[in-house]
Design brief:
Jelly Rolls, Arc Repressor Mutant, subunit A, 4-stranded antiparallel sheet, globular
Length: 275
C-alpha cells in the first residue's frame, strides 16, 4: 500500500505539529492486505472522500465520506480500502495534556471511546471546527473539537449489508458529492442506486448511518461553511449555489449544524484572518 500525502503521511507524525490541520491522501489496492499503523498522538480525522474499513484492536467500522475517525495515542489501527479511489482526510493531532484538560472539565475519559462517528450533524460541526482551526488565529477551536470528540455519543452499530447494495449506495453518495447544488431528489438517487425509494432509504441508512436527505444537507452545509470563510460571495447567493431555494431553511440548517448564523460564521472567520 502506498501513501501519497498532500502534506504528510497517515497518521501525521510529530514533525507535522507545526500545522494545526494536515490534509492527507492515501491510495491503496483493495485486493491487498490491510495496512497497519500506530498513532503517535491522539488524532481526529474528517473523511473528505473515499470509503475504507477502519479497525482498531476491538472495533471495526466502514468509514464513508463525511465520517469522523478517531485514534488514541499508542493505539494500533488498520485500513483496508474497498475500491481503488483511495481517500482524503483532514487530520488534527492532540497532545495528551490538552485532552486531559478538556476531559477533566467535561467529566469524561481523556481517551476516545469509539473509533469513528458516521456522517451526521455532529460530524459536520466537527468539520467546521477543523476548518476554523486551520485559519490563522483559530487555535481555540482545538479545544472545541476535542470536547466534541470526547463527549460524542457512541454510534449505533450499522446493519450488515451485501457488497452489491453497498456499491449502489456509493454511487448515490458520489452523485451527491458532485451535484449537491442540484435538487438530488430521492427518486433521482434511488434511480442511480437502482433501487426502489423504500429500499434505497433503508440501504442508505444501513451503509451511511443517516437518511439521504440528512446526508445531502450536511454536504451542503460543509460547502456553505467553506465558501463563507473563503469568499465574499453574498450569503443568499451561497445558499442558492449549494442547493437551497428557501433562504430561511438554509439559515435554520446552518444554525443546527454550526450553532450560529451564516453571518456570524463568516465574521468569526474574517476576525481571525490577517487579511
Amino acid at each position: 500500500m502506498s501513501i501519497e500525502a498532500i502534506n504528510s503521511a497517515w497518521p501525521p507524525s510529530r514533525a507535522d505539529r507545526a500545522r494545526p490541520v494536515n490534509e492527507d491522501s492515501c491510495a491503496a489496492d483493495p485486493s491487498g492486505p490491510a495496512a497497519e499503523w500506530t498513532y503517535e498522538d491522539a488524532a481526529i480525522g474528517f473523511v473528505m472522500s473515499g470509503w475504507f474499513e477502519y479497525a482498531s484492536e476491538d472495533q471495526t467500522t466502514l468509514a464513508a465520506p463525511g465520517s469522523i475517525i478517531l485514534g488514541n495515542a499508542g493505539e494500533a489501527f488498520s485500513v483496508r480500502h474497498i475500491d481503488t479511489q483511495g481517500n482524503r482526510r483532514l487530520v488534527v493531532t492532540f497532545e495528551r495534556d490538552l485532552l486531559e484538560e478538556v476531559a477533566h472539565e467535561a467529566g469524561v475519559s481523556p481517551r476516545f471511546d469509539t473509533i469513528a462517528l458516521p456522517p451526521s450533524q455532529t460530524a459536520t460541526r466537527m468539520f467546521g471546527h477543523i476548518r476554523a482551526l486551520a485559519k490563522p488565529g483559530g487555535e481555540d477551536m482545538r479545544y472545541q473539537l476535542a470536547h466534541a470528540a470526547l463527549t460524542a455519543q457512541q454510534p449505533r452499530p450499522l446493519e450488515a449489508i451485501s457488497t452489491r447494495d453497498r456499491t449502489r449506495v456509493q454511487r448515490a453518495v458520489s452523485h451527491i458529492a458532485e451535484n449537491f447544488g442540484e435538487s438530488c431528489s430521492l427518486q433521482t438517487l434511488a434511480d442511480i442506486a437502482g433501487l426502489s425509494r423504500f429500499h434505497f432509504v433503508r440501504m442508505f441508512g444501513a451503509v451511511v448511518g443517516q437518511t439521504p436527505n440528512q446526508y445531502l444537507i450536511n454536504t451542503r452545509m460543509r460547502a456553505a461553511s467553506d465558501r463563507l470563510m473563503t469568499t465574499r460571495t453574498p450569503i443568499t447567493q451561497i445558499a442558492f449555489e449549494v442547493g437551497f431555494n428557501d433562504i430561511s431553511h438554509f439559515y435554520a440548517c446552518f444554525r443546527d449544524a454550526f450553532g450560529c448564523t451564516p453571518r456570524q460564521w463568516r465574521l468569526r472567520a474574517w476576525a481571525t484572518s490577517p487579511n
